[in-house]
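Pilot study result, target chain (442 residues):
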Amino acid sequence: MNNLLTQRGPSRRNFLKGAGVALMLPQFASLAKDKKDIEPPKRMAFLHVPNGIIMDKWTPKKEGANFDLPQTLQPLKDLRGDFSMISGLMHDKAKSNGDGAGDHVRASGTFLTGIQVLKSAKTLRNGISVDQVAAKKMGHQTYLPSLELSSQEARLTGSCDNGYSCAYRFNISWAGPKQPMVPETSPELAFNRIFTVWDGKKVSKQQALVNQRKKSVLDFLRESSFDLKRKLGKEDVEKLNQYYASLRQFEKRMQKEKPKILASKLKREFKSKPGNFKEYLDTLSDLIVLAFEADATRICSFIISDEGSNRSFPELGVKGGHHSLSHHLNDKNKIKDLEKIDKFFTERLAYFLKGLKDTKVDGVSLLDQSMVLYGCAISDGNRHDHENLPILLAGKGGGTIKPGIHHKYKKAPLCNMFLGMLEKFGTPTKSLGDSNGIIRDF
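Predicted structure:
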């Protein structure tokens, strides 16, 4: 496993000096004088569920610590000290604001960006999402800057929900206004993309050749370059240095290897098509845990189900599709069916969080090192309400978050909380979407 270690401050950096160059090195566990000098990397995950939630079965009545667990949160009772409930946040840009119908597509498009998406089936306009802000600043430290997963095949073209591009419905992670980070839906393809399975035996001849090629050509050119530079003018020396810098960057990209996973350590087979929806979601969850454990990535978004999804749940004894039921018009039977769906999704969240909690890297629980945000940009699906959003935050964020509290805010933008998460993650930014401040007290 590749466990990179970060520093708490410049005063604890080690420097490699030579030939007039000082390279700042990471902290290594074997060289640390005190365990306090070592800070394991943080992880960040965003999980999306669709169509709102029956809020009176979701929202605790008590604020602060030791809050009550309503019906939908009961699957999390064994983890109650590992998560907080967040009430009162909103996404103004998921509202119409003059654009007419299309609340579901706006809700998913704006979920992690806080931007009013363009109402067009042909032209995209969104913003960078919170996960990609972190990935741009921290993603170079891992094999994958970020990981995007979904239970639903993404669409980038066509019209979805009253004239909006389908790209907003099936993508919550955005690298820029026109750059959706298309999620992988096949556990098998995602696994193969991230990992190399290793049998634990001696390095093969082929792998030895690969390792040899990893040695930089600059290592062989360095001595001769000193003699060459003596013969060059100032501008040519600068040109040579730029060439070497470009070559080094190219080499770094070419040399980046997939994390190796010992075959005997795999807990499950990552099939292309798991047997049922429950197994499918749990398989994708296991993949995230494994990716975090191997430090293949530290940033992930997971569309548990796409906004506006009309998936049926006969295995829960539910008749009708999820989206259709969400417009329940206060029909008690439809509300009961929705409560069953809400609880099902919370059970899958509990499975994922338990996987993180039970997995330790360097003796530290992955959940303690993570911040996991679960929810959506619609509260009441019947009314398409984008205020008082159903948001749950799990994990301790490497000691930066105190879980076990019900926080209640007053119509604050969800992006204010995203800014707080980015700050705690070590990737602060001044603004995001419609943010008008920063929330840190969670």
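One observation from the pilot: Residues 205-252 form one domain. A full batch analysis is planned for the follow-on phase.
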